[in-house]
Structure prediction request, 252 residues.
Amino acid sequence: MQASEQFARTAIALACLLALTLAVMSLAGIGQRRDLLVSATRAIVQLALVALVIAWIFANPQGAVAYLAVMLAAATVTAVRRIGCGFRQSGWVLLSIVAGAAATVGVLAATGAVSRDVQTLLPFAAQMIGGAMTAALLAGSRLRDDAIERWGEVEGYVALGAGPRQAVNAMSTRAVEQSLSPVLDQTKSAGLVLLPGSFVGLLLGGASPMLAVQIQLLVLVGIVLAQVIAAVLTTFFLAASVGSLKPVGWVR
Prediction:
C-alpha cells in the first residue's frame, strides 16, 4: 500500500472514530464534545510535528540532545503546575525526572539490551521521561494534599522534635505508593487484559512476537524503575518545604 493511500485510509478511519464517539456522547448527554474535538485536533497536530522533528533527528543525530531538553522542560513545567509548588521547586522536580529517566536508559544502554543508536535510545528516553513526569506529579500532589488535610499531625511531630522532613515521612511514603499504583496495575495486566501500545506497534511493523515481547518488557519494567526513582526523589526534595509550612498557598 502506497503512503498516500495509507494516509487517506487513516484520515477516513479517524473521522469515523471521532464521529461515532461524538454520536455516543450526544446520545448519552455527555457535555465534553468540544473537549474531545480540541484534544483530538491537538493530538493530530502535535504528533505530526513530532514525526517531522524525529525524522529530522534520525537524519541529524546531534539534534537529539536539544529535543530531549525540550521534553524535559515541558515535563517539568507540567509536573510543577500540577503539584502547585511554584517554580522555586522546579529544579528539584527536574532533577527527579532526569534521574528516573537516566537510570533506566543507562541500564538499557550498558547491558546492550537495545541498540545504542539514536533511533533506538531516543524513543526509549522519551517514554521514560513521560513516565517519570507522571510519577513525580502524582506523588507531589498526593503529598501536598495529605499535608494540608493532616497538618495537625505534622505540627504534632514537629512539636515532639521531629524535623520537617521527618514530620511528613509517612505521608511521603504513602504518596509514592499511591503514585505507583497505575503503572503497577498496567504492568500486571499486560498481555492478559490489554496489549500495550509498543507491543502492538512492533507487531504491526513486522517484528516477531518474541522480539515484541522483549522490547515491551524492557519498556514496562523500565518505566517502573523511572517512576519509582522520580516519585521517591520528588517527595524527598519537597518534604522539607511541605513539613516547614502548610502548603495551602500551593495551587491545586
